[in-house]
């Protein structure tokens, strides 16, 4: 078990057109110093590997050590119930799904089982869909656990593997059978939801034991043993979205109504950031825009909270961000890019804090779709449980 490295000995790096480091078939012909050859395009960010290279496993794990856990706050009764279930699954070596609503405190519920796994001499991987979410995980873990946290994402540590590792998926491509317990956060999010090769890669990096954590699981994830949590940790209901026909006046009214509070407006695509931004500018609103191209998203998040401003965002912010007292609008919510799971996640940004447990959520629409109705119905059902 370990990290696959290019070596003079070992097994061929590309066999039958498939890269043995990342299991991708995205290989291209080129000419190396040995002559006609092929190289893998998928894992170029780890260094080029070609057909005449060989791969060998290198042990990059640190010595086994135990940890102490200091919980950041006392878990509620429902959170303790979920936490005990995770411990039972670990004792039985069973994979499972935590199906908990947005804002339920899923991160802290997993701390006891992470501590148990580490103190049993095993290694834990927390894999996140995005770098900024991974950073938030690592920061929280560092305040709670006494062992060092390995940060295996862009800008983090890639040379060693400690007892607890927080990573994004692309930097796990060259690992094999390292982790005894793999926690997949937001397991239905992009890119996990659409890339089968990623799941094969995660399966190879671990040893077959998974914990999926999400508020909106996919159909196949629901086949695993499941523990539900339908209440937020502060005990208040989830905000139920309102449906409002989209007009320029309706959008402006929403922004004016909550003047003095943070306002988060989701849009389907990056061109929509410009289109809706021009509308806000014409009527004198100050705003910032966030997409996958925005380098300092944390700064924008702090600005939104501190200035009670307006942020136009693509779905890059549908998960993993919390702003106290925010009101949420999803513009053009009938757009095909907005699935019911995405709408639930975006609606879940409101009312997450105990000192601001409510918030307005509006689905602005040009036409009604089953995805809007399904999202509202699932939120209402969660509130009734």
Automatic annotation (TrEMBL):
InterPro entries: Helicase/UvrB_N (IPR006935), Helicase_ATP-bd (IPR014001), Helicase_C-like (IPR001650), P-loop_NTPase (IPR027417). Keywords: ATP-binding, DNA-binding, Helicase, Hydrolase, Nucleotide-binding. It holds the Pfam family Helicase_C. GO terms for molecular function: helicase activity. Gene3D superfamilies: P-loop containing nucleotide triphosphate hydrolases. Residues 87-235 form the Helicase ATP-binding domain. Residues 239-385 form the Helicase C-terminal domain. The keyword ATP-binding applies. This is DEAD/DEAH box helicase family protein. It comes from Exiguobacterium aurantiacum. The lineage of its organism: Bacteria, Bacillati, Bacillota, Bacilli, Bacillales.
